[in-house]
Amino acid sequence: MSTRPFIAARIEEVLDRWVERVMRSFGWREQVICYTGYGTAASLRLLGRVVLVPGRAHTGIGRATEEFVRRRGFRNFFTAAVVRAAITIEVGGQVISTTTDRGGYFDERVRNHGLEPGWRQVPVRSAESAQALADVHIVADDQRFGIISDIDDTIITTLLPRPMIAAWNTFIRDESARQAVPGMARLYTELLRQHPGAPVVYISTGAWNTHDFLSRFLTRHAYPHGPRLMTDWGPTNTGWFRSGPAHKRETMLQLTRDFPEIRWLLVGDDGQHDLALYSEFAQLAPDRVRAIAIRQLSPAEQLLAHGSATALEEEGRGLPCGIGVYTAPDGRGLLAQLRDLPELT
Questions:
Q1: Of the candidates 76, 20, 43, 45, which has an alpha carbon nearest to the alpha carbon of residue 229?
Q2: Which domains does the chain show, CATH number per domain?
Q3: Which residues make Cβ contacts (< 8 Å) with residue 246, sequence separation at least 6?
Q4: 259, 253, 237: which is closest to 45 by C-alpha?
Q5: Could you tell me which residues come within 8 angstroms of residue 196 by beta carbon, excluding any fewer than 6 positions away?
Q6: N or C: which end of the chain has fewer CB within 10 A?
Q7: What is the CB neighbour count within 10 angstroms for residue 19?
Q8: φ and ψ at 303, to 5 degrees?
Q9: Bridge-partner residues for 147, per DSSP?
Q10: Where are the alpha helices (DSSP H) in 163-260?
Q11: How far apart are CA 119 and CA 327, in angstroms?
């Protein structure tokens, strides 16, 4: 059996290398983009990407144009990846050398990092870039509670997956016009008040290109800081398209390995398949789930999200004994149900 990547992946790498050469000829330079990482006393996970950016300042007209397009989502998708770039990471007296993949991404594990629990910063640089600092949440070993949250229509109204509406929200709308789901930020903040230092991990099938936008969105709407585990929309080593549900399954299972003592509150919505995925996960790892919270979309949101005015799932199936499903149309309703539950204390 051949071990070569799928033909679409090989074509993508060839195109990325060609774009990289062209952009370098125009004087573009390397820049490291660090995504929010996480870790424990045993190891930490650093994620990011190396891309090319213009090497000279904009003219007056250029700055005005840049300010206009900066706030439109399509700009996030116009990037030139640096394929197989060499990068170095400095932490705990170590200098770790690694390389990016064919899309310019890196996902590195570091052991014996020596960082104390809390939010820390780790220096990362490529061979030709200035130093960037990666935010990393080091979770204390005695922490037993955490939140795994969906993003689309759970904390931000996106009306996915209807293609035209999703494209409008993602590519065209000014990012300041994007709406937060009422009460969800307060829900997470209140739960973290009860569990200081607990991790909040946001999982989405959205592209890594939107990571910076989501960082600004979370800050603007007072959501807790936490890793956003996204995906690359390009082809995989085995096929043309990535599976969104598979990405969520694999990410949740990875988190159970990274945090073996934590039991998670799983938060999603009923506009896609979150309840089915969470129920499946609870069957696989019942000792890692405290409860499931599902935000109910309105009939209008349901219609725009998937073409029907009713939810895709009405109830969890096959949930292990003791794992409850709590539903409400917004964060305030969910908080009223979850605040005093014994399983969350």
A1: 45
A2: 7-138 (2.60.40.10), 145-344 (3.40.50.1000)
A3: none
A4: 259
A5: none
A6: N
A7: 15
A8: -60, -45
A9: 200, 265
A10: 163-167, 184-194, 211-220, 244-258
A11: 32
Say how many CA atoms lie within 13 Å of 228 toward its Cβ: 27
pLDDT in single tens digits along all 345 residues of the chain: 445 555 656 676 777 788 888 888 989 999 999 999 999 999 999 999 999 988 764 444 444 434 444 444 444 445 788 999 999 999 989 999 999 998 899 999 999 999 999 999 999 999 999 999 999 999 999 999 999 999 988 999 875 544 544 454 455 455 566 789 999 999 999 999 999 999 999 998 888 888 888 898 999 999 999 999 998 756 555 445 566 788 999 999 999 999 999 999 999 998 878 999 999 999 999 999 999 999 998 666 655 555 555 555 555 556 877 899 999 999 999 999 998 777 676
**How far is the C-alpha of 235 from the C-alpha of 8, rounded, in Å?**
6
Residue 90: strand pairing partners: 95
